[in-house]
Design brief:
2 domains; single chain; Alpha-Beta Plaits; Rossmann fold; 28% strand; five-stranded antiparallel sheet; alpha/beta
Length: 234
Amino acid sequence: MRKFAVIGLGKFGFTVATTLYENGAEIIALDNDDKKLEELRGRVSATVKMDCTDEQSLKNIGITDVDVVILAVGEVETSVLTSAILKKLGVVNIHAKVDSQLHARILEIIGVKNIHFPEKQIGEQLANTLLSPNVLNYVNLSSGHCIAELAVPDVYLGKTLQQLNLPNEKNIHVVAIKYTEMRVTEEGENMIETKVNDLPGANDVIKEGDVLILLGPTSNISGLIKEVTPDKGA
């Protein structure tokens, strides 16, 4: 079981902590606010009230033994000091929430590699889903790549993945295909079930209603989205 420490229990930290715990991870949640800790009790493995800028306190809870530290502190000064202490203690895998470019730049100088702008990322995702009716979900990755869920356009229907040839022509990989299937329940009712083909092969045929999960460089996927989006002005 992977072990995580979440420092700072605002909306972002609270959501990350509870979601990880619900999916089977071991979670230590840290904050100096009794009310926030009380709200989280029973929804994570352990809650600890402490000052996250206290180096000895971080040592005492075994912060160096966790797999990942999620730093979700909003105050820039506290976030920077805590990051510096974590790096000093030898914590390698730190994911930090930031609210400004300056905040991000300071953490980058300290050596924090995984930096997240929650509002910016949500805004980008919303914008990309609004730009095309085919885009159902869109997530930027820190590597300059992104993952997109694309409802298959009409021009793809009936073609195999080999015929689309996205890896060679677009440098975009189809990592999975979502599809729906009708089944009958034990009570005799018809039910539509969503399934995932997570090992799509070259001969798999694209059908109506399929959703392609794409992975590739952000610029390439953006280009593909524009290519398959109908031009309403035409």
